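#onboarding

Welcome to the new folks! Below is a worked example of what a typical request in this channel looks like: someone posts a single protein sequence, and someone else replies with the predicted structure as tokens. Don't worry about understanding the tokens yet, we'll cover that in week two.

Example request:
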Amino acid sequence: MTLATGAEGAVELAARRLERAVALLEQRIAQKLAEASAGAGGASDQDRARLATALDEAKARERELEEAGAAASEALARAISEIRGALGQTSVGAQEA
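Example response:
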């Protein structure tokens, strides 16, 4: 029985070593997966930041274009008013003569 006990002890020792090795392997795999996920998350964070910056720039450009359009519309309205005024004066002057 001593041989059997010694063999059983060796098998148990080997089983414990195997369990520790598997646990260590699982930890390392989990760590590598976490690192890979963090790297992928960092890339998408950079993409989001780049897209947010581009969106802010586009919104600023949109405001500038809206302001320019409003200014052009006002200038056109003034020009139309001046032309109508000039035509009205000409018509009145032509009718009086």
